[in-house]
Amino acid sequence: MEHLHYIFTGGTRTLARPADVVGVVGSGNLEVLIESIAQDGACSIAIDTAAVGFGAIWQAVMTDFHARWQLADARIAINDMGATPAVVSLRLDQAVETMLEDVKGTAP
Amino acid sequence: MTSYVEATARERLARLFDAGSFQEFLPPSSRVVSPHLGQLNAPVAFDDGVAVGRALLDNRPVFVAAQEGGFMGGAVGEVHGAKLVGMLRRAILDAPDAVVLLLETGGVRLHEANAGLIAVSEVMRAVLDVRAAGIPVIALVGGANGCFGGMGIVARCTNAVVMSEEGRLAMSGPEVIETASGVEEFDARDRALVWRTTGGKHRYLLGDCQALVADSIDAFRAAAITQIETIASPALTLAALEQEQALLAARLDDFGHVREPYDLWRALGVPDPEALPLLEADAFVELVDSHRLEAR
Are B44 and A107 inside 8 Å of each other by CB? Predict the structure, then answer.
């Protein structure tokens, strides 16, 4: 397992809902827990991945993600079991889109 | 129509119960994860592979759980089991109209060994306590991982089991049997054989499940509603246990020597048993209803 942590600042988009989770921790897949939490405008991303040694690729994928969404006051936690960069990007987009929907009563 | 087998646990919860009604206990944001997997350097899930909570089913308050087969095959670890037990115990206090368990699991999570075994036995006790409190418990089995091991026993501790053909229910899984007793005993790679010995249609014919539905979340929802409305007295009684014991003994006497499910179905009087695996759920139920063993 490898633990990676990124913090991005300068984002402007805040999330509509408190928290949600998308994806499943299965082979080639990952879960993304996304929370709307005040942290001086920063977007933090904590990753636990079973695939060790891919820090540079994670860095690139996360930088792209922040450039796409410009999230502020968002905390993201990822449990990964070897998802490809494309799957990671899709899951992150799915997580943000879920949080921007104004759906009431869905978990969690 | 949304496929049940293809959906995740959370998608099933969102679509099977009344829209927006699911309220989760210990959601992923609580981060109550397995204390064992981290020590083994294995990935954890923020919900430890199960979502539990309350919801509405056709406007009736129910307590619910859904196991995620995609995370370690839905296997039960210490936290996963404790969430199930906690939900069941809370149900006794809150007295909902029913408890609905969306089971998809290989049984005990081997990484957590004794803690997982104890957890499963606690789930069994809790299910029976819920029934003793007069609350019906319904198990839905339609996931790709089936329902095996101790959780297979849990399913049969409930008032009613609803299955799809895709769902499987048994104690030891096919690979376990093959490993322990040899490929001559059971060829786990023979998918047709696996499904006709453990799949929903066989279980329905033997009376091990009470309803057989198509692989659709709507069909499981409708069947769960029907079962809740049908169950008059959820608690176990000595008379019902003795009756079931007699039925199982008779079943073993009648069919214990049969090596092939087709032969068993033929012995039940089903016409053209080889055609059964190809039938849609409704046509299958209509054809076999007068032949199946009524276990309860």
Answer: no
Name the nearest CA neighbour of B138 among B228, B22, B10. B228
| Structural domain contains residue A56 | yes
Predicted pLDDT at B296:
41
* Residue A102 binned pLDDT confidence (cut-offs 50, 70, 90): low
Q: pTM (2 decimals)?
A: 0.95
- Residues 6+ away with beta carbon under 8 Å from B39: none
What tens digit of pLDDT does each residue of B119-173 get? 999 999 999 999 999 999 999 999 999 999 999 999 999 999 999 999 999 999 9
Q: Confirm whether B292 is domain-assigned.
A: no
Residue B241, domain member (yes or no): no
**Does A105 map to a domain?**
no
Containing structural domain, residue B85? 9-169+209-235
Buried b / exposed e along A53-77 (16+ C-beta atoms within 10 A) = ebeeebeebbeebbeebebbbbbbb
What is the CB neighbour count within 10 angstroms for residue B208? 22
With contacts defined as CB-CB under 8 Å, which chain A residues touch B17?
none
The boundaries of the domain holding residue A93 are 2-77+85-100
Residue among A100, A47, A49, A45 at smallest CA distance from A74? A45
Q: Between chains, do A106 and B20 touch, taking CB under 8 Å as contact? A: yes
Give the mean model confidence (pLDDT) for residues B280-293. 95
Chain B within 8 Å of A51 (Cβ-Cβ)? no
What is the number of structural domains in chain B?
A: 1
Q: Is residue B77 part of a domain?
A: yes
Spell out which residues of chain A touch residue B44, defining contact as CB-CB under 8 Å. 25, 48, 79
> Which domain CATH number covers B74?
3.90.226.10
B129 contacts B92 by C-beta, under 8 angstroms: yes
Tell me which residue in B19, B29, B41 faces A33 most closely, judged by beta carbons.
B29
- Contact check, Cβ <8 Å, B44/A106: no
Domain tally, chain A = 1
Interface A:B, Cβ pairs < 8 A: 70
Is B202 within a domain? no
